[in-house]
Structures are given as C-alpha cells and as structure tokens.
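Render this sequence as a predicted structure.
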Amino acid sequence: MYAIADRIQRSRLHLDIQTVAWSRPLDWLRRGATDLRRSLPVSVAHGFGMTLLGWLLFATFGTDPYFVAVAVTAFLLVAPVMSTGLCEVARRLELGEPSTFDDSLVPLGREGPALLQFGGLMAVSAVGWFLVAQVVLRPLFPTVAPGLAQALYRSILEQVTPIECLAYLIAGGGLALAVFAVSVVAIPVIIDRHAGASQAVRASVEVVRRNPAAMVTWAALIMALTVIGFATLLVGMTLIIPLLGHATWRAYRDLVRH
C-alpha cells in the first residue's frame, strides 16, 4: 500500500524552476562554507573518506599521467552521487534537525531505489569515459609511472602537445558537461522531494536550460576547485568535497522553489 502511495506522490511531483543571476554560484559557495563550519566534524569525515578512497585508487592503479588525467574527469562524473550525505546534512541544518554522521546516511535507505538508479547512470558515464580515454589518452603516456607529484605537476604538461590536450578537453569536457547538466540538482531533488531518478534528471536539465550563465559560472567553480584538490595531492579534497556538497544544496534551494 505504501509503495502505491509513493508512486502516486512521485507521479504528481511538480518542480518550479527559478532563474538566478550569473554570479549567484559565488553565494552558494559562501553559504556552503557556512554550513561546512556548522557541521565541521561530519562534513570533514565525508571529505576525508572520499580523499582516502582517492589515495587507495592511486595506490591500486598507479600514478601515471594517463590515470591522473582520467581521474580528474571521472571525479566530476561521480561527485554528484558522493554528495548525497553532505546534502542531507545541509538539509537538516536548515530545518534545525540533528545532523550526525549516521543521520547523513538516512537517504541511502529512504531513497535507495532512486539513488541507485541515478548512481547507475553516473557509473555508466564513468565507464564510458574510461573507454574513450583509453583511445584518446592512453597512447600519449609511457607505461612506466612516475610518482604522484611528478604526474600531477610535470609529466602531463611535458608529454602532451596542445592538439592532444585539446582532444582530452573535448572528450572529457564534453562528457563532464553532459553529466553536469543531468546532475546539477538531482541529488537534492531526490532526497528532499522524494523524486525518482528520471524526474531529478529532468529537473537538472531544466535548471541548466533556464540558467545558462549561472551554470557556466557554477561549472567553472567546480572545475577550478577540483583541480586545486588534485594539485594538493588530494589533501585539499577533505574540505573541497564537503564545501561543494553543501553548496549544491544551496544551489538547489535557490533554483527550485518550495
């Protein structure tokens, strides 16, 4: 009976998309930073967990420039799903509810099917990017991997020509932008409005369609912070990931009227 009522509620979901100024993403980051300070232990725990995962991936797959280049784009593909717990913390802070680490995991059970479907879409995108990168990037780099710092700071720039760099930007950037368009507010819509994955994707696409200037600013900020995180050997991701997660909630609250 509950499942039937839930399906009816989802089918009737209506989202009123708002238009914002091109500079509004700067305010999302500012308010996201405030939420980060208010929930520092929980937020840093999420950020450190994702940073630790990145270190484990480098330990497992190596540090050659190919993997580093692929990892930067892959992070942009899976980051929306990883922000689920942080968006829940921000939602609870806004409502004055408890926001412990356990509380941040509640949406995984409550909205499990929709999050699983959306996560599957992101996973398929990530796999597709790895396959494309195998063709575009793999021939550019040697099989002997340098250290992580050298891979980040020297090897890619020394070995890749401007044309090859352009190929990477077109392939990886194009896919990242497509994923950005379908995910910009998807997770908050799922956890706050109990939407299905397809409804959340449509809402994100509509947000991008109505706010092209603001979305360009927001995408540029996300990319810049991601690059900074990788440039600090992932240490900076401990704070950058929760900052972006909280800012994503603030973006949703501005872009989708309640």
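Summary. The two ends are 27 Å apart (CA to CA). Residues 1-9, 143-148 have pLDDT under 50 and may be disordered.
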